[in-house]
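Q: C-alpha cells for this one, please.
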Amino acid sequence: MTSRTRKTSSCANSITRLSDGLGSPIACVIALAAIVWIALSGAVMAQDTPAAPQADTNVIVGYHISPPFVMRDSDGNLHGMAIDLWNKVADELGYIASYRDYPTVLGLLDATRTGDIDIAVGNVSITEDRATHVDFTQPWFDAGLRIMIDKEGTTSFGDVWDGLWEAGYIEAYGWIVFIIIMATIGLTFFDRHFDKSFPGRWRDGFSESFYAVMLVATKGTLPSRTKLFGWVGRVFAAFWLIIGVAVLAYVTSSVTSVMTSLAIRGDIRGPEDLPGRTVGVFTGSISENVMASDGIDIRSFEGIENAVIALKENEIDAIVADAPVLEYYKHEHPDFGLDVVGRIFHPGKYGFALPYKEDARTQDVTIKLLALQESGDLDTLERQYFGDER
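A: Here is the predicted structure, written as C-alpha cells:
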C-alpha cells in the first residue's frame, strides 16, 4: 500500500469516527464529500505522474546494392550477407525496419549523416574521415581492395583503329594516301608523254601507274619500264625507293607500337601496374578516393555491372574495388573471362553506420554484433556466401 493510499484511508477513518461521534446527517454529508474530494485528488495526482518512455522500435534502414552483401531477388526481396546479419540483429532488438535504396555508397552515407535514415546496412568501409560524420558499429568483416581485369580480351580492328587515331597516326596515313594518289597522277602524265609503250586509255594508264607507286611504297621495287633517261632515271628511281622503304617502315612501326600498347593491358598484375592506365571505380567508394590520391586516371560507375561492360569494351583497363565484391562477381560469372589479380591492398573493415551521436542505438547494435560473432553465427554467414576460401 502506497503512502498516499494510507493517508487517504486514515483520513477516511477519522471522518467516519467523527460522523459516528456527531451522529447527525450533516456530519455524514460532510464526511462523504471529503472522501470524494480525496479520491479525486489522488486520481489527478496519478495523471500528473509521467509514464516511463518506451524505446522506438521503428527504424529506417538505408542500403546500396552490392553483391554478395546486399542483393535483390526477382521478387524484389532483399538478401545478402549484410542483410541477413542485420535481420538477426533486428530480431534480437525487436526492431521493425523499413528500407530505402541508394544508388551509391556516397548517397547512403550522406543520408545517414543528415539523419534521413536510422542505420546504413551494407559493406560500408570504416574510415577516419567517415567516422567524423557518422557513427560506426563494431566491425564485422575484414576487406580491402583488389584489381579486376579482362583476361580474355581480344584486340579487334576497332581497337587498333582507335589506338592509331589517338596516337595521331591516322592523320599521317591520310597524308601518305594523298601523296600516293598525287604520285600516281603525276606518273601517269609522265609516262603518257615519255613512254611510247604506255597504255593509251586513261584508266589503264592510271592503274598501271598506281601499281608502280604501290610497288615502291610496299616492296621498295620498281617495274622495269621506269628505267628511263639513263643514269638520271636510275637516280630518280633510287630516290623513290628510299621514300618507299621509309613509308613502309613508318606504317609497320606505328601499327606494331599500337598493337604492343593494346597487349600491355593484359599485363596488370598489381597496384604497381596501374599508373598510366584508366581504372574503373565505384562512385563515392574507398577505391575512388585511393586511386584519385595516387594520381591514377579514373572513371566512376554507380555499380559493378556498368564497370564490367566498360572493361569488356576496352573503355577502361581495370576495375579497382572491394576484394570480396570483385571475387564474388567473378565466381558468379565464370563465362565473362574476368580475373581478379594481385594482392589485397589498402585493407579495411566493414561496419554498420548510424547518425552521429546515436550512442544508445549504436551500442545496442554493436552488442548484438559481438554476440553473433561470439556465437559463431557470423562465421556461418560468411561461409554461406564465400565458402571456405576466406
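A few notes: Residues 230-264 form the longest helix (35 residues). The longest strand covers residues 338-350.
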